[in-house]
Write a structure and sequence with these properties.
Blueprint (H helix, E strand, L loop, with lengths): L4 E6 L5 H9 L5 E5 L6 H13 L5 E4 L4 H8 L5 E5 L1 H12 L5 H18 L3 E7 L10 H20 L2 E6 L2 E4 H4 L9
Parallel strand pairs: 1-5, 1-6, 2-3, 2-4, 4-5
Antiparallel strand pairs: 6-7
Helix pairs in contact: 3-5, 4-6, 5-6
Length: 187
């Protein structure tokens, strides 16, 4: 199997994770990388629901911040690395570094580093991320900054990805096969 980078974008409850897991089930040796932290009861329930849906043979790595190092340490021997999700990882980084005047540059450097780890890996990577730029403009400066940084992070991953899917209402569209790239997209 030739390795690929697959990006799956969509809104909340659009079917992103279900599609990612369906693609990952095509292989036996799967590393599931979770970026969510259970900071409240609702998130605990969501994490538990996702865990119960995954095959028990999959290895789960939970890492909210230092994804590149964590994946690099354990990725050997896996056919699939499923990262769910870029959205929460960027949020975690932003909240950790929000007072840094170079926060956007720092986060995008982390995204670039993550893509370098992919290049060194022999596994196919499936990356899940929310498309947050289609909704209303966030009312706070931090919300707008987050939306912008995640949009740029998604562009960087999409520019490198072999396949990019957009999920809406449980349906998927293959963006790479139907899209005309806009200039940019790299960090």
């Amino acid at each position: 199997m030739t390795k690929e980078l697959i990006l799956i974008l969509g809104g909340a409850r659009s079917g992103k994770s279900a599609l990612a897991e369906r693609l990952a089930r095509q292989r036996e040796r799967v590393l599931f990388v979770a970026t969510a932290e259970a900071l409240d009861v609702d998130m605990e329930r969501r994490i538990a629901a996702h865990r119960s849906q995954r095959p028990s043979a999959w290895r789960t790595l939970e890492e909210p911040l230092d994804l590149s190092s964590a994946i690099q340490e354990v990725a050997d021997g896996y056919e699939i690395c499923l990262l769910d999700c870029l959205t929460l990882w960027v949020s975690n980084l932003l909240l950790k570094m929000e007072d840094d005047p170079n926060v956007e540059r720092e986060i995008l450097a982390e995204v670039k580093r993550l893509l370098e780890v992919y290049e060194e890996s022999s596994a196919t990577w499936i990356v899940v991320s929310n498309e947050v730029g289609l909704g209303i403009v966030p009312p706070t400066p931090l919300g707008r900054q987050y939306r912008d940084i995640l949009g740029r992070a998604n562009q960087a991953v999409a520019a490198r990805a072999d396949r990019v899917y957009l999920t809406v209402a449980g349906l998927m569209m293959d963006l790479k096969s139907m899209a005309v790239p806009i200039s940019g997209g790299s960090i």
